[in-house]
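Course assignment 3, question 2. Fill in each field.
Student: A.L.
Task: Predict the tertiary structure for the chain below.
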Amino acid sequence: MTETKPRRGRGGRPRLEPEAVRSQTIGVRVSAAEFEALQAKATQLGLTPAHYLREAALKRRLPDPPVPAVNREQYAELARLAANLNQLTRLANEGAFVTVTEAHLQRLAGEVNRLRLALIGVERGA
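Answer field:
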């Protein structure tokens, strides 16, 4: 008589959860020197090059995006307005007689509002 052994489950490591499975690939071309540098950095940290790149790409803070030219221009204009206003405030605090009319204040408020709109990309009359 032949004796049958009960079947056991499949060997190997347990399956990963579906969201943990890495099924997507990204091809990145590097020069020989870049490859050696990546390999050296990964080895230094005890990681594979793939693990090192994944950690570097996903866990590090990226540099801030460049400030648009329009923002730099409008900021400079706003700084000029602020300097003028600061001079008037200093003169008033020193006791000098400073005449600021309502028309001046309305013009200044209009300029500040125009600059604010330009900084967020809204053009007047649009």
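Instructor remarks: The mean pLDDT is 83. Residues 69-119 form one domain.
Grade: pending
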